[in-house]
Amino acid sequence: MSKTFESDRQRVTALTEVSFSITQGEFVCIVGPSGCGKTTLFRIIAGLEAPTTGAVSIDGNQIDGPGTDRGMVFQNYGLFPWRTVRANVRFGLEQQELSDNARQTRVQDMLSLVGLEEFADAYPKELSGGMKQRVGIARALAVRPEILLADEPFGSVDAQTRDNLHEELLDIWTETQKTILFVTHDIEEAVTLSDRVIVMSANPGRIQEIVSVDISRPRSRSDVAFGEHVERIRRMIGE
Fold first, then answer.
1. Predicted TM-score of the model (pTM)
2. Longest C-alpha distance within the chain, in Å?
3. Which of 68, 162, 194, 207 would be a feasible disulfide site paired with 143, CB 3.0-4.6 Å?
């Protein structure tokens, strides 16, 4: 798959010959330097952009636009400020043919999953950054997507909150057994979370290598194996 942007003045190849597959239930992170096309790749998989050549498929079905088979979580939360936590989580379900009872049950299940039952009637402005992102995750999972797409979702929170969110996301992943594709610029975050790390290089964006993270969970950043994986990926990106 490739992606080229054209204008009257220039032609820029953002991605070239990008090809990989993800197994159901796998947690995969994408890392790379600025300008390597991570977000462009995310938008293509999300159906927000079309590739110039090639295609993206889920379970053999080619993607031709956004769909409920992909839940999305963004760095800027993307919550509706005029909706309560409960109503934000319910948003995607309003587009599906479900009874009111089914919607209410699904929303309650998601709030329980992310530990926000007590904040169901709060508004986004009343929540911390970490709580807002948990609402975003609950909303994405409420529609029961086949894959969860996350574009640097923890980039706006402090280090302690990010560590807590890592633990919570891994717990959610274990409980739901969802496939997760997670874009990040943080190499340590990628090694903490993923089964495999797709390392991209720039000019144009392409896959340099796919690294398997064969470290048992939970992972400690002080472990020698953890540090070795981080340094290996850092050298690739530096090169």
1. 0.91
2. 55
3. 68
Phi, psi of 10 (to 5 degrees): -155, 165
Dist. CA 66–CA 184, nearest whole Å? 21
pLDDT grade for 239, boundaries at 50, 70 and 90 = low
CA distances to 21, 66, 118 from 49, rounded to whole Å, are: 19, 9, 37
In 3D, which of 168, 147, 123, 162 has the Cα closest to residue 56? Answer: 147
Closest by alpha carbon to 120, among 129, 130, 128, 108?
Answer: 108
Condensed to tens digits (0 to 9), the pLDDT of residues 139-150 reads: 999 999 999 999
3-class secondary-structure state, position 26: coil
Do the beta carbons of residue 5 and residue 39 sit within 8 Å?
Answer: no
Tokens of 74: 């963004």
CB 193 within 8 A of CB 27: yes
Q: What is the CA radius of gyration of the chain?
A: 18
pLDDT tier at 106, thresholds 50, 70, 90 = very high
Residues whose CB falls within 8 Å of the CB of residue 163, separated by 6 or more in sequence, listed in order: none
Q: Which residues contact 14 (CB under 8 A, 6 or more apart)?
A: 3, 4, 5, 37, 40, 204, 205
Instruction: Please give the structure tokens belonging to residue 20.
Output: 């990989």
Give CA–CA dist 211/19, Å, rounded.
15
